[in-house]
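worker-03 picked up job from queue 'complexes'. Input manifest follows; two sequence lines, order preserved.
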Amino acid sequence: MSSADAVAPLPNPLPRPRGELDRLRKIWDPPSGLRFLTVINNEYVGLFYVGTAFLFFLLAGVLALIMRTQLAVPENDLLTPNTYNQLFTMHGTVMMFLFAVPAVEAMGILLLPNMLGARDLPFPRLSAYAFWAYFVGGLVFFCSLFFNVAPKGGWFMYPPLTGGKYSPGINEDFWLLGIGFIEISAIAGAIEIIVGVLRTRAPGMTLDRIPVFAWAMLVFAIMIVFAFPAIILATVLLELERAFGWPFFDAAKGGDPLLWQHLFWFFGHPEVYIIFLPAAGMVSMIVPAMARTPLVGYRLVVLALVGTGFLSFGLWVHHMFATGIPQLSLSFFSAASMAVAIPSGIQVFAWIATFAAGRVQLRTPMLFVLGFLFTFVLGGLTGVMVAAVPFDWQAHDTYFVVAHLHYVLFGGMVFPLFAAFYYWMPYTSRNALSERVGRWVFGLIFVGFNVAFFPMHVTGLAGMPRRVYTYPAGLGWDTLNLISTIGAFLIAAGVLLFVIDVARKFRMSPEENAGNIWNAGTLEWLPNGSYSNRSIPIVTSREPLWEQPNLAQDVEAGRYYLPGAPTGRRETILTSPVEAQPQALLLMPDAAWTPVLGAVFTAAFFMLLTVKLVAPALVCGVITLAMIIWWLWETDPGPMHPSVDIGGGLKLPVYLTGPASHSWWAMVVLILVAASVYGCLVFSYLFIWTVAPQIWTAIDALPAPGYPLAAAGLIALSSVAIAYASRALRESAGWRLRSALLTAIPLLVGGLAVHIYGLETTRLSPVESSYGALVYAFACIDGFFVAVVVIMALYTLARSAAGLLDRVRRATFDNMMLLWHYTVAQSAVGLVVTHAFPRLVG
Amino acid sequence: MAVSRFSASVLRMSCPVMIWAMHFLAIYGFTAFVCARGLADLRWLGVGIVPWTITLVTLLAMAATIAVILPAARAARASFSHWMAATIGALALIAIVWEALPVFIVPTCD
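worker-03 finished. Artifact:
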């Protein structure tokens, strides 16, 4: 008898019915043959994701080697300046956008469901869509290098260099459209992770029992929700400037290039922590397993994750210390940059204390963790140096900064990621990686890294600027550069050895994996299959495998919740967000082509737009929309099955609507993303108003107040109509619902039309001044949301006509209603900003 | 109701963060506006408009954060979300004070 039995009887008796496990396996098995491409199980999609991210790491690494070869000796002519510009831009861009963020997101998709005790993440098709969009779009983006059309304005794309005047051609458009849409993929993953961590945890896994990696991924995903919108808006504005001449960043017309820098770094600095926090979360999982003792200061580490997350949003201007911003303003950001050292320090001390509390096994993952600690702490210290404004002015745009950022990013993310590869390889593969080879891999990478990057501190202090394709001899940079190049090739040797070891040892097998060779305590080390765990455990501690003996056997035997697939479909338990109490059985979709094809055509849409093939792009856009609608048509299944007994007499409903539904949660997160984009636009408007009041239009040049008032009235009435439709649906009155929807659509579209017509009655033009461009940008974004909700309303009408919508089965309507009301509120804010604000401030 | 309980937890934990964010935006935005429009010379009792405003806003933010920390700290032993609210509040309080301090050291618009 297990100790869990001593506390309470387990929910399901033995023996389990014959064929139960086979049915479960059959339902969750991935498709075979060509249809394997449509697989949506997190173990497979997660691995594809990790593999693709690692491929981009290798590709961007090769670019780095070419650059280091160019810089090995002075006055080298291996590369032309134009090629070198493309290489450093692609190296930074690919490492940040196609490797770092997707890699940690991929680890989340791969590990989280098992770590949380779920069968899969709540929107597996969304994961597949995000992966394929990233895979296809990323590869096409990378291939721009081979056609001499890769972006060359640096990974942060500062205008005016990247504006139409100084960068004609399509190079920068590849960055703006390519990266802009890959961020959509990151946001889709973030929504998946937030809802997954909050709603699909094993029963009993309360907030203070969540594994630290899951906490880190939750903070990571929330940061994406608030940080990525800034870069999405920035890329839209710069593309509008390049394509249509709307002068957001053109100083001659009242724009300001600094607006780009603000938007970019409002995303860019949190991005550093978006990359680092999941890596820190991985370290917090590996350290206790290697030290064979629980993490010291669990609560403080969670506090540190949350604290770093929010403080990181107050640091963005520290990338702009040399732009002429007033000293006092710089000092706020300097102080915030130093304050963030507090939560980072908490984590470092917690790891050191855990080493001290346990008996550390010096295995390969541990070596990489120690490498991470050494490197990251050094990078953190130079970070405090460049946070001091006077020092930053000296080191700005020199190789000192290149050294600092690589110590932070390579130290803070790549070392932990390699630790994670070694640590979790037995979770996903039949064999662990070789310990002997692993030591060599670590040694080569660690030594190579420090040989490559430590001298760059000195090179930078000796005055070598970053991003120069060559340099004259005799400035004291020659030997330092040669040493750096030797170091880069040592890193490459280590990575190559790792790839060889992976090729030798990695054999994917969720079901027959090498297993818990570290004797770790968290749920991902339970016996696995394509269905995740045979039964879903009740969790009573932070390290269930250490604290709940016999757990693995009992889970494997099917003694916990949901040992089979009672509805005959893929399913997992939906739990409450705080106490993780079972609330419902979440029915999950099967594999399908629609997410894959939708992703491919989404990528095609953006890439064809980049090369100005507008008509084929529009065709791809329409196909994408069709695929997404087809995909969604099969969701929202309604209460197709009576309540299910998952064990212990616990009967769960199989359908939830309203705020308890997981789709409602996803829509709320999406609305937060939208609100962040709009918030950034409001910031842009106020920024330009602050720095360029001369281009603000006179009050008498604004549209007559009747136009915005009429627009506000119409859109408000559309919301009333939607609220009426909601009430009609409660009474199952199909015709009243449809009439209300058909009334709401023209009201909303009419409101937008009146607003735009009002603008057209004035002399305001989006190409004459940044003020005009901003006012029209508000209208464009409002128009985009109106188009989206109108399509959703038409889709809802179609479902109503097909008999797929009723008083119970109403999740589709509820989600549409949420976004509709949000769109109306957003447009109202836009009207206040663009019409009331100028009148209020004169 | 689980959702409302969750909302209460999220609100409790995010309150100090929102106060910090509003304080940060207020002091940064106000300083930027005053410097851009050349209003830094407005003074009262020999002290400029920026130090006055930042001091006032910082005191308000500190009071609001302490108002969140105190009740949360009392329940921190029994509840994780209260513990988180209290400690995040403490971190936010340090950040608020630390970020406002330069106003007494650094010239406003140089």
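worker-03 released lock.
The first strand of chain A starts at residue 570 and ends at 575.
Residues 176 and 691 of chain A are 25 Å apart (CA to CA).
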